[in-house]
Amino acid sequence: MSRIRSILIILVLLASSLALVACQGGGSDTFEWQPIYGDGGQDGTEVLARVGDLEITQKDLDLRYDELPTQARSRYDGEEGQRLLLQEMTNETLLVLGAVEQELFNTREVQRTLITTRRTTLERAMRGLHIVGDKQPSDEEVKEFFNLNRADYQVMGRVNLRHIECLTREDAEAAYERLQSTAWEDNFAHVSNDFNVNKQTRENEGILGWVNKGSYVPFIPDSVEFTTKAYDLPMGINPPISVGDRWHVVQVETREEDRSMTFQEARDTAREHMRAGWQDQLGAVWLDEARVRTGVTFHGRFAPGGGLTVDQIFARAMLVPDHKQKYDLFLMITKEFPDSDRADDAYYWGAQAAMDAWQDRVMAVGLLSELVQKYPDSEFIEDARYIVDNAYDEAVWNPPVPGGGE
Question: Which among 232, 260, 288 is the end of a domain?
């Protein structure tokens, strides 16, 4: 690996703590030195090493350790690991000092890396620390997301089972006959002890516990077939059923049917499911406001009316197979051509693309609400209003297929 490539890698690794600012014109008089390590705050911790006039402190060592990928940290654990990391930090410092001495910050390759790293770091900081920060969706927003996606929050039905596993049908029928008796020696625990060939459940008096339909049970042979058949059995002790090369006598003790989760049950999960889209929406709102506040114009072939026309972009959006790209193109029209006769179409089909790409009903309803507000004369106004007004109705999002039966 060339020397310049090694220095570039080090500069990228130190990007969060080393700010090198150079004008594109170049020149050492434009160079601004910032600390190689630390976080810019006060540091009164012990000095562990000096490289020329630069000090490396315990805080610097701790922060450098925190920068390491989780899987790489074990190499630097313990006193000997810290000594190794400190040695590597002195090497990094020498290389950075050498890069500064050679004015490598004036080379286009290094400048591009520093500019890219600085831009990416500040962009992520703006999104993560300012726009999102510690903000969380409110319970009202989570509940709206939950209501719009209620079909995704279901509690699977389950049955609580006991069973006796036999190698032959004859043994299974004998076990079943004994279970019809009311004698104490013919209760399930005793019969399981006499007939059950499954060691795990025999030791537990035949108790298998709760299973879902078609679920996997590690100690039951052909368990998916077993749970599929057992789930549909009526309550009580059932005649033997065949599963694979075994026979089972199954007792269904308790049954809980499929049901929808309550909001309280689903709230935390729904909050996590909506978080990414909700954060993206925060960013979109901030950018819309900043675009108006700051002013953004496009020139040349990218100016409105230059290059591709709105009809060409719309035609492209309708044809591309990728739903995310389709969404991006429709949103481009809503932002760059809000006064065109394609803008309301783009809102409508953008909502459809959001559903196709992410199944994001909140995003879809948001776009349709904007359509209703901004374009009351749109040909899509009735459909958009209907969907917004009936957003919680599952049939709106999953209409029945004509001729599809039940």
Answer: 260
Q: How many domains is the chain built from?
A: 3
Q: Is the pLDDT of residue 45 over 70?
A: yes
Backbone angles phi, psi at 256, to 5 degrees: -125, 120
Number of helices (H), then strands (E), in the chain: 16, 9
Which residue shows structure tokens 């499954």?
A: 198
pLDDT, tens only, 179-224: 999 999 999 999 999 999 999 999 999 999 999 999 999 999 999 9
Looking at 212, 233, 260, the residue that finishes a domain is: 260
Q: Partners of 61 in the beta sheet?
A: none
Q: 259 has which bridge partners? A: 155
Question: Domain of 380: which CATH number?
Answer: 1.25.40.10
Pairing between β-strand 158-166 and β-strand 246-256 as defined by DSSP bridges: antiparallel
The residues pairing with 207 across neighbouring beta strands, listed in sequence order, are: 162
- Distance between CA atoms of 262 and 247, rounded to whole angstroms? 39
Here the CATH number for the domain that contains residue 207 is 3.10.50.40
What token pair was written down for 236? 């009580």
Please give the DSSP secondary-structure letter assigned to residue 404.
-
> Do residues 178 and 252 both lie within one domain?
yes
Q: In 247-261, which positions are buried (b, 16+ CB within 10 angstroms) versus exposed (e)?
A: bbbbbbbeeeeeeeb
**Dihedral over alpha carbons 214, 218, 221, 224 (to 10 degrees):** 10
CA torsion through residues 178, 179, 182, 185, sign: positive
Of 263 and 24, the structure prediction assigns the larger pLDDT to 263
- pTM value surpassing 0.85: no
pLDDT by residue (tens digit) across 372-402? Answer: 999 999 999 999 999 999 988 877 777 665 5
For residue 220, what are the domain limits?
154-260
Neighbour count for residue 170 (Cβ, 10 Å): 11
Please state the three-class secondary structure of 214-280 as a single string. CCCCCCCCCHHHHHHHHHCCCCEECCCEEECCEEEEEEEEEEECCEECCHHHHHHHHHHHHHHHHHH
| Residue 107 burial (10 A CB sphere; 0-12, 13-18, 19+) | middle
Q: Which positions ≥6 away from 213 have C-beta within 8 Å? A: 156, 157, 227, 228, 231, 232
Structural domain contains residue 279: no
Whether 31 and 103 share a structural domain: yes
